[in-house]
Structures are given as structure tokens and as C-alpha cells.
Design brief:
The protein has about 425 residues and is mainly alpha-helical. The chain contains 16 helices and no strands. About 50% of the residues are buried. It is found in: Cell membrane.
């Protein structure tokens, strides 16, 4: 296979999607919860992010297949769990991208008066633009996400620095927030570090994976940490001594006002839409490659195999696109809600991450790392407890289907 992803291009695939819509949505939420001490919660979250990124990058290096960390899960926990993890990730991506499309379309429509009347049309345009990039192959994906990541990152960094320089006083938090409030905030901010677990789905197209992935992880992690901490610090300082209540309007666009003035909301809309788009490219690209690899191994229908002449797995992408179109239509006619799709996707993403973390306990050495992994597992289990009933129902269905597919004895017993 012609390997086309180097350190820079794989970094482009990581930074934008991992920042995602979280850089727009999460800093205001943290400030609402613990005020000017939000930066403390972000520092703790980013420390957890370092561990999370290291664990899943290390696991990705252990496999040479686009099935990603699922291969390692199978080796360490048993092949049944390999299939289970793959199905969890595929199920998550059946629902999650629809919510991302709605988030991106929301920012775009808010920039133009009356555009919300055509929101579903905007969503379909974004979806098919995303498909066009994916069909162009891995090189195009890397270039597009690199441009989006670099542009949005620079806007946020320059805007934050300019904002801080314009402040009369730059204040640092004094003391720690209450433990209970800090804990609740950390649970929400944990979503800022999700995303590293799908990097392994690109490993077949990475030049010298062992060195390239670790270098790219360090570059991407440094960029993500710097942007999150700087943006949050600038945002909480832009509020001055204002008393924060539930009704206080806090928007990341505030950090851009000193630099862009009245255009700050339009610029932030473009930034947010770009990051959502980068997330779509990475997640869908990773899962379609994983589906094609599983089809090659006989775990999915042969129809989903990728032809050698294809730049990307077209049939796997087609199946996911049809499912996404159905969900978009159902949401448009109010049969389901965006929150419904988010809840289901979150349930499957958490379960997939849990399996990866449990498997990593068997392949990563070091007592400090192992204790950190156990801490992350506990946090994810707590998050999982807040899943919706429909999320739990679909989780049980997918788990039972995976068991039926993976365990011949169980399959034979059901036939008898």
C-alpha cells in the first residue's frame, strides 16, 4: 500500500477533530459552573488528556491494521471483545455525525438572517461536501483538515493573545473550587479529550507508524492543550469582575471582539463550522476504513470491502451516508431529536473507550500510568450511568448481536 500520511498530515487529522465543537461549547460551561477557577478544571482535564492520548497512540502502534485499537483489544481481552469494540464504534458513528452536522449548520445559519429556514438544506450540503472530500482519498483528507486546524487554531490563539493584551488586569484564580463542583465540571470537560481512540484506523496509510504517530501525537497534544488553556484563560478574563449567574451570556466570541469587533460572531461561526467539519472527516474516514478492513477479514459482508483502485472505502461510506440521511429526515419532521442522537452516540463512544482502556492495562507498563488508566475508567463508568434508556437498550442489542456473531458455540446453541 502507498503510505501517504506523514507527521504533519496526521497531525492535521488529529488537532481539528479533537478540538471539535468542544472548544466553542465547553469553556463557557466551565465558567458558568466554577467562574474564574475554570482554568484549574481545564488544567486537570488536559493532564488526563496527556494520558489518554499516550495510551491510545501507543495501542495504535501495536497494530498494523486499519481496524485500529480493536485488534489490540482482541489480543488482550479475547476476539469476542474485538468484535464488540468495533461494533460499538460503528454504532456510535451511525448517530454522532448527525449531531455534528446540526452543530455546524447552526453556526452557519446564525450568520445570515432567515437562513434557519433552510437549515436542513445546509445540513445536506455539508454532508455531501464531506463525502466529496472523503472520496478524494487520504491525502486530500489530510490537507483539508490540516488547513482547517491551522486556520482555526491561529484565529483562536491570536484572538486570545490580543484579548489578554487589551485587558487592564489579567487575574489568576485564588484557591481551589469546591470538590463537588470541580468534580461535576471535570465530568463535562472529559469530552474535550475524546477522539484519540480512532487514530489507529489510519495506521495502514502512515509512514513509519511507530515514529510518525508518536511525533504527531506530541505535536497535536501540545496544540490542543495550548489552545484550550489559552482560550479559556482569555475568556474568563474578558468577563472582568462580572458576577456569573445562570443567565449570564458567555460566548467564546467574546475573546475575538477586541480584534474583530462586530465581525467576531461571524468569525467564530466560521471557526466552529470548520472544526465540526474536520471532526466529520476524521471520524467518518476512520470508521469506513475500519469497516472495509473488517469486511476483508470476513467479520462484515464482503460488499463493504475496499477495491484496490479506490482511494477510500466507497461502499462503507455509502451505507453510513444512507443511515445519516434517514436520521436527518426524521429529525426534520420531529420524529426524533438531535439530543436523542447525541445520547446514543455518547453511550457507544464511552463503551468503546472503556474496552480500550481496560485492554491497555495489559499492554502498557508503569504503575503511575496504570493508576491513571484506572482513574479514567472510573470516570467513564460514572459518565455511562447518565445514558438514556434508549441508549442502554441499543447498547444491549448491539452487544447481543456481537456475541452471536463472535461466539460459534453461542451461535450453534441458538440454532438448536
Amino acid at each position: 500500500m502507498n503510505k501517504k500520511l506523514n507527521t504533519i498530515s496526521i497531525s492535521g487529522l488529529m488537532i481539528g477533530p479533537i478540538l471539535g465543537s468542544g472548544i466553542v461549547l465547553l469553556p463557557p460551561i466551565a465558567i458558568h459552573m466554577i467562574g474564574d477557577k475554570a482554568i484549574i478544571a481545564w488544567i486537570i482535564t488536559m493532564l488526563m488528556g496527556i494520558i489518554f492520548a499516550y495510551i491510545f497512540t501507543k495501542m495504535s502502534i501495536l497494530t498494523l491494521s486499519n481496524e485500529g485499537v480493536n485488534v489490540v483489544i482482541g489480543e488482550k481481552l479475547g476476539q469476542n471483545f474485538r468484535e464488540l469494540s468495533s461494533n460499538y464504534l460503528t454504532a456510535a458513528v451511525c448517530f454522532g455525525p448527525v449531531a455534528v452536522l446540526y452543530t455546524a449548520s447552526g453556526f452557519i445559519c446564525n450568520m445570515f438572517q432567515g437562513a434557519n429556514n433552510y437549515r436542513t438544506l445546509v445540513i445536506f450540503i455539508l454532508l455531501f461536501l464531506n463525502i466529496a472530500v472523503l472520496l478524494m482519498g487520504i491525502t486530500a483528507m489530510g490537507k483539508v483538515t490540516l488547513v482547517l486546524s491551522s486556520l482555526t487554531g491561529l484565529i483562536l490563539i491570536i484572538g486570545s493573545v490580543f484579548n489578554l493584551l487589551k485587558q487592564d488586569n489579567v487575574t489568576f484564580p485564588s484557591g481551589m473550587p469546591p470538590i463537588t463542583t470541580l468534580g461535576s465540571t471535570l465530568l463535562l470537560l472529559f469530552w474535550a479529550i475524546i477522539g484519540w481512540e480512532v487514530i489507529g484506523s489510519y495506521v495502514e496509510e502512515v509512514m513509519n507508524p511507530e515514529k510518525t504517530l508518536m511525533r504527531a501525537m506530541k505535536i497535536s497534544l501540545s496544540a490542543v492543550i495550548f489552545i484550550y488553556l489559552l482560550t479559556t484563560f482569555a475568556l474568563q478574563n474578558s468577563l472582568g469582575n462580572q458576577i456569573i449567574t445562570k443567565e449570564t451570556d458567555i460566548n467564546v466570541s467574546l475573546i475575538l471582539i477586541p480584534l474583530f469587533g462586530n465581525l467576531s460572531y461571524i468569525v467564530m461561526g466560521i471557526v466552529a463550522a470548520g472544526l465540526c467539519y474536520a471532526t466529520l472527516i476524521m471520524i467518518l474516514g476512520a470508521v469506513t476504513r475500519q469497516m472495509a478492513a473488517r469486511a476483508e477479514n470476513g467479520m462484515l459482508p464482503a460488499f463493504l470491502r475496499k477495491k484496490e483502485s479506490e482511494r477510500s472505502p466507497k461502499r462503507a461510506l455509502l451505507v453510513l451516508t444512507i443511515f445519516h440521511c434517514i436520521l436527518i429526515v426524521l429529525i426534520h419532521y420531529n420524529y426524533i431529536t438531535v439530543e436523542w442522537t447525541v445520547g446514543i452516540a455518547n453511550t457507544f463512544f464511552i463503551c468503546n473507550a472503556l474496552l480500550g482502556l481496560i485492554a491497555s492495562l495489559k499492554c502498557i507498563d508503569g504503575i503511575i500510568i496504570k493508576v491513571s488508566i484506572i482513574l479514567l475508567i472510573i470516570i467513564l463508568v460514572i459518565l455511562l450511568a447518565f445514558s438514556s434508556p434508549i441508549g442502554w437498550t441499543l447498547l444491549v442489542v448491539v452487544s447481543l448481536m456481537s456475541m452471536y456473531k463472535s461466539i460459534p458455540q453461542f451461535q450453534q446453541k441458538l440454532k438448536n
